[in-house]
Amino acid sequence: MTLPSGFDLPDLMALAATLGLASGLRLYAVVFFTGLAGRLGWVELPPGLVLLQSPMVLAGSAVLMAVEFLADKVPWVDSVWDAVHTFVRIPAGAALAYGVFGGGDAQAWALLAALAGGTLAASAHAAKASTRAAVNHSPEPFSNWALSLGGDAVVPALLWLGWAHPFWALGVVLLLALAMVGLAWALWRFIGRLWRRGRPEPQR
Q: Which among 47, 153, 63 is positioned nearest to 105, based on CA atoms?
């Protein structure tokens, strides 16, 4: 198996994991910051991700990142945005993770990375969507804004950790993924109880 030149397996695994998980939170920020870091020479991107640093991709992802930043601050608009992006974030997370290995002949690793990246993106997206749906039942907007700004901060922090400290990144991603799965399950049960409580009683 030949890995992309200049990279070792732990580095690539950490990058694939962080890209996958972060894509479930802020896909366009992941694309923009990863491409920008490569464009500015801060990091070396694997061949399968070099496309992200092209001017066209950077410009498009910057615009979409700005739209997502604003949409994520408006209660209920954020939930509609999340619902639409159920069909975008998960395959995109898988594609980004695949691209980490996709530039070499390590196709088995690329496929495994795609599966893991899609799964991590799905867990992060489910936790984000369910958390925001639950918080949107609160009449005050501050908790919504706090959660949104927290998501804005987590993504670049995760990406930095994936590049600078791969072993730590893998551990953090695993813990976050487990926590997100548990949170999503608990919150969907909570939302289900709210929905059942709000339904009108059947006429007898």
A: 47
